[in-house]
Each structure stands twice: as C-alpha cells, then as structure tokens.
Amino acid sequence: MKPRGLVVAGLLAVLMGDTAQSQKFDILVQDRAIVQRCSTQGLPRSIAVGMPGGFSYVFDPVACRLAFVWFGGFLDFRPEATGRGGGRLPILGTKRSVGTAESPLRIGAADQEPMTIEFDGYRREVATGIPTFQFRVDGVPIEQRVLSFGRDQVTVELSFASVGDAPRFYCLDPKATTGIAVSDGVQVVRPGVIEIPAEESWAQIRLSLPHTAETFARQQPTTNGRLLYAIHCMACHTLDGGKRIGPSFNELWSGPRVVTRNGRSEEVVADEAYIRESILKPQAAIVQGYEKANQMIDITQTLDVEQIDALVKFLVSLRLEDGK
Amino acid sequence: MMGLGFLRLKVGLLCLCCWWLSASPGEWNAPVAAAEGAAASAGGLTAELQQQEMSAVASICLERGDAKRGEEIFQRSKLGCVKCHVATLEAGKDGQRTIGPDHSTVGDRLKPYELVESILYPSRVIAKGYEAVVILTQAGKVARGVVVSEHPDAVVLIDSDTGNRLTIARADIEEMEPTVSAMPAGLADQLSGPQEFYDLIAYLSSRRASDLGAPVMATDHVIVQEVPQPSAALPLVAVAQPNGICFSYDPNQFRLEAVWEGPLGWLDAAGQFTLNQAAGIPFHIRNQPWKIDVGRIRFDFEWLGYEVVNQQVQFRYRLTDKERGRHWTVTESVDAPSLLQQTLEFQISHPAESREVLTYWLEQTHYRSVKTNGQQAQRNQLEFLKPGQAAFTLRLARRPTGRTIPAGYSVARVAGPVVEKPYLFEPTAFSFAPDGTLFVSTRTGGIWRWQGDEWNLFADGLHETLGVRVAQNGRDVYTMQKPECTLLEDADSDGVAEVYRSVADSFRFTGSYHEFAYGPVMNAAGELFFSTGLAASGHHEAKESKTGQMSSPLGYRGWVMKVDATGQLTPFACGLRSPAGIGMNAADELFVTDNQGDWVASSYLGHVEEGDFLGHPAALWDRPEYGLTPAELDHRTVGVTVAKVPPLDEEQYRAQRKPPAVWLVHGDLTNSPGNPSFAPEVGFGPFGGQAFIADISHRAIVRVALEKVNGVYQGAVFPFIRPLASASYSTCFDPDGRLWVGSVGRGWTTGNPMIEVISYDGQTNPFEMHRIRLTRTGFAVDFTAPVDQAALDEAAISIKRFHYLYWAEYGSDRQDVRQLLVNKPQLTSDGLTLHLPVAVDQGHVYEIDLGLLQTIDGTPLQNNFAFYTVNEVRQ
After folding, report:
1. CA-based R_g, chain B, Å
2. Could you tell me the CA-to-CA distances from B851 to A172, B794, B862, B865, B869 in Å, in that order?
3. Inter-residue contact A12 to A74 (CB < 8 Å)
C-alpha cells in the first residue's frame, strides 16, 4: 500500500499567525523541519522536532515513542549556548500528552510488552528536513513519522518494512485524546488500542487532543531600547554631550539643528519622525559639521521593526528625562 | 511543500575579501577572516588600500609620508582619532579614560604594517585590553566597556562611558555580548587621498618613546612616582628599582598591576611624566584580592599608605571582615630581581584568636610556576594561607613574554563558517577523509564539512558533539553525541547527511551537563572506541565526607567503550574522570587524556588496554562482580537508578590502578588538556610519532615523546607552542602533516572559537629536545641539533623529583620535591645526546630543566624544560 494524503503542516503557519516571536537563543523553525537532540525536562535523551508552522514534538529514543507534543515556538537553546552548556532546553509552548507514557507498540498481542526495543536512528527528507524514525520492536523494523494537520491534531504514521506475520498494536491512554481516527485497514479495537493487521504495511493514526484555549505567546524580541542603544549606537553617539564619531544625543534636544539635505541646509526639530528617518536613512539629512564624518551604518539590517520602534522610543524618552 | 529550502542553503558564505596569512607563502592558502572587508564602502580609499599588501602600503607610507602633516591629520577633529586615542596622562588630566589605546608610543608597539592593518581592518586585531563587551544585567542595567579581567564569579570592566571600573557578578549577568571594535571601519575614506593616509601612518610610526622626554631610570636607589589615574581616587604607585625592573601598584585595588624592564617613564621639559605603560606585563591578581574562606565573607579594604624602607616600597592596608568587623593589617612588598621572577611578601597581623583561612586570588596559569609558603589551591586561581599565618610569600616565575614556537613552525588562522544563531562554531574535533575533505564537530551539535575552501553544514541538531571520525568508506562520518555514538550517512554523496544512524547508545546518560562523551576513534579493523565522563552527581558512597566529587549514576560512565565491527558495544576499560581527549597512534594503540580532580592528581595522558582501571573508582561499580550493571544496557535498564551501592575496597583498587603513561603536570604545562594527536612520520618536522595535545587554560600545545620501558609506556612532556590565540582544545593532523587546532569559546575558560593551523616549513631544523630516554644510569636527552659543549658548562642544569598523591582530594600537590645531584652531564661527541647521570626511582616525575643550553651558533633552547614520568626503571 502506498502512503495516502500526506500534506506537510504548512497550514498551521496560517492558523498560528506570527505569535511565536524570536528571542536571541530560540531555535527558529522556518521553512524546514528542525531536529534537535537535547535534554528536556524529565527526558535526558530527547530528540525534539520542530515542524514549520508551530507544531513540535519530542521523540524518546529509549522507548521509541512519541513522548509529547506542543504548539507554539520550538526550543530555547540558551542552556546549551551559554555557560558550560549541557542544560535542559525549555520548550516554547505547553507540553501536551499523547497518552504514551511507555512504548506504545506491541507485536502479536496488545497486552504483551515488548521484550526488546532497539533504536536505529532517523533519516531526514532532503527537501523538508522531516525525520522518519527507525526502530525495531521485538525485532520487527518500524518507521515512524509524526505530523500535524491542525491545532490539537497529531498524526502518527507507521510503516513496516514488509508484510508481517503477526498483528501489531499501537496502545495509548485513551484519556489523553478526544478522538482517534485511523487509515483504511487499521482499526481501533477497544479504547486506546489500535490494531494494524499483519497484511498492512502502513498505518496512519490521527489523535485529537483536548482543545485548549491557551495560546502560546513568546516574549517579544529584545526590545530593551537602552540595550539596543548600547549595542548599536553608543560607540559613536554619547548621551552626555561627549564628542565621538557622530553627534551626541544630548544635542538632539538643545533646539533646532541645522542639517544638510540634498546638498542644502535646512533647520529641523529632532522629533520622532526625524529620529526615525535618521535610523532608516542615515544619509538623508546630515547634521552640520558631520558631513565628512564616518558614514553611519545601516542598522536596519540587524534590527526588526519592533526593535527600531523600541530604539526610537528610547531616544525620544531621553528628551522627557531631560525635562526639555 | 511551500518554499522549502535545502540544507545547503545554510552553508556559510566565505568572505569575499580574503587574503593569505602565512609564514610560508605560496604553500598554505587558508582563507582568513576579513569581516571588515565588507564594511568598507566600495570604491573608497579603504577598499583601494585593502587590495594591496599591508607591508607594501607600509613601505610607501614610510617613504612618502610626512609625519608633521600626519600629526595635523591625526588631530583633525572630524576624523575623531583624538577622541579615543590620547596619551594616557593627557586623558587623566581632564578626567576621561581613553577609549582606545594610548597612541603616544604606538610606533614602538606596532610595526608600520600593523598600523596600516589596524586602520583598514580595525576589528581584526583589537589591542589587548580594548576588547569591548556589552553586558545586560538581570536588573536591566546595561554596561558597555572593556573587560580587564574575568573571574569564575565576576567580570571586571572599564565602563566606556564613565571610565569607572565596574565589577559585575556573573550571577547578575543576563547577557554578555562582544561588540566589534569601537574604532570605526572605513576611516581612510574620510581622508582626501592616499597621501593623507601615508602621512598619518608616518606620524603614528614616529610616535616613539624618545619623543616623550628624558627616560626616568633608577640608578642607586628606588624611584617612586605617583601617577594620577582617571576616575580613581588614588594615584597609581610606580616604582623603579636600581636593577632596571619597574612595577606599578594600584592602591585603589590593593594589588600589583604590572612589571616591566626599562625606563619607569619619561619626563619632558615641561615636567610632564609619561608612564611606560605599554611595557607592563600584568600580575594577574584579582582586584581586592583577599577573601576569607574561599570567598564566603568579603572584606572592606582600607588603604593605609606606603613607605620606602631599606630601598623597598612597603604597601600597607587594612582588611575588615564585613560580618564581624575584625581587622587584619597587611604590609605588602615586592622583590623583582628580574622580569621573569618576582616575590611578593605579605606580613599580616591577625585579630586575636582568629582561625580563619585567608585566601589570595592569583591566576596561576599565567606563570611558569608559583611557589608559596601558604597552601596552593589546585583550582588554578587561589592561594590559601594557613590559619593564623603571619608571613605569606608568593614566588612567581614567569614564562618569557611573546610566543614560544620552535623555528620552522608557524601558526595561521582558518576562517570558520558563518553559523546561524543560536548555534555556534566551536570546533570540538576534526577528521580528514582520504581526499582531504575535513569534517569538524561543534559543541552546539553541528558537523561542518570543509572542501575546496568552502564550508557546508553536513549534519545538524546533534546533542553536544565532542568527536568526529570519517568512516572507512571516506564518505560517512561517525560522531559522538552526549547520549549516542552516531553514524551520519551521506548515501547520495551530496555533502549532506540524510541518515543519522544510531551506532551505540547503551550507556547511561542522565542529563548531567558533565556527562560528556568523546570520540570515537577507529582502528584499522574498524573497531570504534569512545569515552564517557563521570557525572557531577550520582552515587557518592566512596567520597565519605568530601563534597564536590565526580561520581557515576552507574551504567558505564568513566569508561572507554568499544564498538566492534558487528556493532556490538562492550565495556573496554574504566577509571576515567573527565576524559576530554581520546586518540590512537599509528600502531592502533589507544590513549586518553583525563582532567585533574578527585583521584586524578594532575591531568595525564594514559595508555588504555582492555580491562584497565585508570584510577577513578566511581566506574568500578559497573564491573560485573558487583552485579549492578548489566553487561549491555537495554531500553529497560539504560535509565535504571541503583539506590544503594556496596563499599569499594580501596586497597584492591589501589593495587589494580594503571598509572598514567605521562603526567601532563598540572599548572606548569596543562590544566585542561584535549585529545592527543600523533604526528605523522613525514610533514611535521622531526617529531613524527610523537603526541601533541592542546590545553584550554594554557592556550598552548604540549608535546609528548613516549617510550616503552619493561613493556610499559612512559616518557616526557615538553612545552611546544604557547600561547595560541584562544582556548585551544581539539587537535588533528591533516594529510599533509599540518596540525589543526580548534578553540572553544565557552565553558571553563572563555575564548573565541576559532581554528588555528600549525605548519612546518619542511626545511628549518628547530633546536629542541627531541625526546628523553631513561637509561640505566639516568636520563639521555636527544636533541634535534648539536648542543654547544661550552654552553653546557654554563647551562645550570637542574633535575627535580616529586610524586603525586592518589587520593579522593581534588588534585595533588607535588610531594617530597627534591633537587637531585646531576653527576657530570656528558654530551656525546656529535653534540646530539646529553647524558644526565642521576638516581631514578619508580613512581616519580622528574622535572628536567636544561637552563641556558644553546647550539654552537648560539641559538638558545627556548623550550628548555620537560617532565619525565617514571613508571618503570631500566634494570
């Protein structure tokens, strides 16, 4: 049998909008699935997968199970990227159970726990990066993919290398789901027990998870205006009138200033619009006396819109502090 | 599948503007990072000059430049030079700290081509002490400045805005980011043309000490000069001794700052004194260096003043314990017989009945050796006094300044790939395919591939990869993740792995950050070996009252594991602690390095054979006789915790322990060694077959020459190159015999992640000890070039013997150190072998210092000492 109706979960990107904002150490999932092995809370050997569109899950290579899923952002890499590394990575969302506290697969009989489970690895689809996990349960080779076609929906796809001689069962705690749908030829034989008959080489199991109203909201990108000033401006512009490469921001508020625009002198008031223009188009209006100074670099390449807003707001706030 | 890109797109772009940095032109063409290349505006003078050789530009500057006009250009306010670069003392007068280095003697410090480079590529070489960072604190405050010193619990920086010295506790740091040089790129574009650039360089080259007035030197008595410091209450105290050695003391921080040779400074006709600051070599003493009981209680410091007593300056201050208000009064003095040796003496009056242990914070790794009458901490940075100790002495022996590197060897940097955040490029291991393709593992779990001068990401998303090894097919790659040994398969040979195959994961991994895994290495039979570090937690029955010992949660931590050709995993050898390096020589013999700590007296290089126990007992509980750990862990046992473990028989494991082949002599030569790489017979000069090991803390490479005595490996460890540019850790020889060295950026020592490559020029014969052999009568030192008999007579050869303790404490001091009598050193007639007759005992380390040895043509032996570990004696 051939795989049916596979669509990568790009749809979720539309559903989710852009609520998941980036932080400095966040692993951003863009147009490819990302696999990141790491430690997560309670699972030192986690293989985390972030799918485009905001669906993520952890595969546990010890029990060879889909351990849990979440919707929102992917992972915060800070504990690995800072200090001595090696910390557990926080997931950027709320952990959702899929009813698999232990290995869900059984060979032959639904109530017979596997004797051996061996993790063989995973392969990644070249174009999408999506992993297919490969493992053996009681010697039977199994491939597993996990997808999501919508919020609160999780699809487990299982392939078997060959038609077997014993039925296989996927067992989960039925309380974790509100509904289970299966592909043709596969049956839910009793709550939480799904039988994949020996003659089937492929099965798709769609789990509906309880709906949660909670939406994941990532913190905004670094919008500490003072921090942004320190990183991007301070080398050339002081706050206290001190002379460096560019005019001090202290002088911004000392009254109208003369700038050169299109080769002509012009008097401007340093209002928000002027500050914004100076950041977005640094060469548009040059403060008199700085025509031949080092050209201001274009920081819009490194800052996003919110950050530029934050920076402008910070610079405007200086005027209020001065009481001018 | 909308807009799905290929992994290839993650490939880092190489800088378009690269040039070649090498001491052997034409042979070695690694691209060098040139971040500023892109910053310079197209078509400007900067871009124009960047097209040319720096040294060629420099010669034109000296030929055609006019220093007088250059000074005017330098002072031109529009250029902004003088905003940041002023003479230190001029800056001091109006209360500002200099943002850039003092330029007043820059012509002495930088060669003309370096001046050219620092204007055209300001971020490439940032003067030491002027690397800027931005720190965001937990409280939301921001500090931008230059880091002057880093400590385990704090960072000290000079605030770029205020010039104040700030100490920020690491616990308070939310983020710390390096920034580029505060010096603007594209400065040359502000000039009217090349002539102005030539003038500017000519001016800066002319800024030499001789312009600053008459040198101030001590002749028959000490000279003390107070030097006002910007933004500090008390002036620096600068002292010139009659022997030509000067030093400075900062009473604001209660510590010695720097020592130097030559004039104290210069005095011009107007009475203006300029300190000879550029010459200073730091003491590496922490600000306000005193604490009680390893930093639990801090002191208030109170300056009492200084006076000259018997031609020696005595600094006095008072320490007040912040909790109980008791006082200690300290009188500190310095004796500096030479630039390489200083002795600090402290007279301390303790409060009545005080039994507290005082500590003094010194970064010992910067010294060749530190000797004390107090108690030397093994953790690199502290000296403890004994309770109530009134006279405390620190004898500092320094290494010669500058880089020590054998003749014929050179170091070049190779630009790494551009890595997407939040990942980093910290090379933890290298492996070369037979076709020369390089694979590099990185700490944040990426495997990079380097072929034809281009980088591409071969595999990603791995769990802290600390090892990489090209498979036998030359195409696939083994790597070691913390929880798994993995084979990365690239079946379609497109340079990107598609299959991440689990090779071995049947060992315990609890997620403790310290459960590192290293390797694999592979022998000719295709068998793989990897090593596992102990956890920072686990069963502690063996440690009794000790805290902080490493231990095992059981399940093959502290082991070398073997994967045979069928994929079967078996425990191979045990007793490792934090075995940060694993390597194999040409004869497929396996070696590990381990890091100093409990049961590991000093870092060492160990020879590993099946069944060996190398010393740390925590791994012993996994042995079959205890019945706790199955021979092979499976999905049910790989996570099981054993609640209780039986006591171990110390007598038994003491007897079983296989001693290290070579102690790497913590403090003197290594503190945190990486993997041993064995040099090929051809390509790396006269040291074929010897082991080379990088050390993170020392930023250095050491060399080990092994020999077998009574069938047991032992031998000598020598300094080789120091310092490298960063925290060097991983090493590997490429097919041409060049040594690749990777530096990591985070962890115990901060550095900049980078790759440096050490090459041999193929012809120069360096003057080094080639190896040391144990003979029946002592030691025989073989040299690479003939030694001058006349110099031998004056060389002041010294041999000292010591041993280490095998115990649960963190590291061991050298025990029973004895100076040995060398009974007439004999040089062979060819001058190539020096016999050192001396009594030799098993179980000892011999420090062999050859002093001032030189060749007939007067080349001195720079790497003039070695440590030989005697496991066996010759009968």
Report:
1. 28
2. 74, 9, 9, 8, 20
3. no
Find the angle CA(B83)-CA(B88)-CA(B90) to the nearest 5 degrees. Answer: 70
Domains defined along chain A, listed by start = 11-208 (2.70.98), 225-322 (1.10.760.10)
Q: Please state the three-class secondary structure of B621-658 as a single string.
A: HHCHHHCCCCCCCCCCCCCCCCCCCCCCCHHHHHHHCC
CA distances from B656 to B557, B574, B616, B809 (A): 19, 11, 11, 19
Higher pLDDT, B213 or B126: B213
Tokens of B541: 């029955």
Q: Chain A contacts of B482, Cβ < 8 Å? A: 86
| A58–chain B Cβ distance below 8 A for any pair | no
Question: CB distance B1–A128 less than 8 Å?
Answer: yes
Half-sphere exposure of B51 (CA within 13 A, CB side): 6
Say how far apart CA B573 and CA B531 lie, in whole Å: 9
Query: In terms of C-beta density within 10 A (0-12 exposed, 13-18 middle, 19 or more buried), how is residue A18 classed?
Result: exposed
Exposed/middle/buried for B331, CB within 10 Å: 0-12, 13-18, 19+? Answer: middle
Measured CA to CA, the distance from residue A200 to residue A203 in angstroms comes to: 7
- Between the two ends of chain A, the Cα-to-Cα distance in Å is 76
Q: Which of B755, B506, B736, B745 lies closest to B639, judged by CA?
A: B506
Residues from chain B that touch A35, judged by Cβ atoms under 8 A, are 460-461, 500
Contact B482 A88 (CB under 8 A): no
The residues with which B733 forms a beta bridge, in sequence order, are B739
pLDDT computed for residue B162 by the predictor: 63
The rounded distance, in Å, linking the Cα atoms of A125 and A131 is 6
**R_g of chain A computed on alpha carbons:** 28
Task: Note whether B499 contacts A123, CB cutoff 8 Å.
Answer: yes
Sign, CA dihedral B3-B9-B13-B16, equals: negative
Torsion angle in degrees (nearest 10) through CA of B200, B205, B207, B210 = -150
Across the A:B interface, residue pairs with CB atoms under 8 Å apart total: 173
Q: Are B179 and B134 in contact (CB under 8 A)?
A: yes
Tokens for B137, please give them: 């604190």
Give yes or no for a cis peptide into B422 (omega within 30° of 0). yes
Q: Would you write out chain A's pLDDT as a tens digit for each of its 324 residues?
A: 333 333 333 333 333 333 333 467 899 888 788 999 999 999 999 999 998 778 899 999 999 999 999 998 899 998 888 777 888 999 999 999 999 989 999 999 999 999 999 999 999 988 788 999 999 999 999 999 998 877 788 999 999 987 778 999 999 999 999 999 998 899 999 999 999 999 999 899 999 999 887 665 543 455 777 767 765 676 678 787 777 667 888 877 777 888 888 888 888 888 888 889 888 888 888 888 887 766 776 777 667 788 889 889 888 888 766 544
> Is there a contact between A44 and B464 if contact means CB atoms under 8 Å apart?
no
By Cβ distance, the residue of A27, A45, A227 closest to B136 is A227
3-state secondary structure of B410: strand
CA distance B223 to chain A (A): 37
**C-alpha to C-alpha distance for B839 and B100, rounded to whole angstroms:** 56
Q: Please report the pLDDT score of residue B363 as a whole number.
A: 83
Complex-level ipTM? 0.73
Tokens (6 digits) for B731: 């090493």
Assign 3-class secondary structure to B49-113: HHCCCHHHHHHHHHHHCCHHHHHHHHHCCCCCHHHHCCCHHHHHHCCCCCCCCCCCCHHHHCCHH
- In 3D, which of B666, B645, B558 has the Cα closest to residue B603? B666
pTM beyond 0.80: the answer is no
* Euclidean distance between CA atoms B756 and B724, whole angstroms: 8
Q: Which amino acid is at B627?
A: G
Structure tokens, B520? 């694999």
- DSSP 8-state secondary structure symbol assigned to residue A300: G
| Measured distance CA(B333)–CA(B316) in Å, rounded | 9
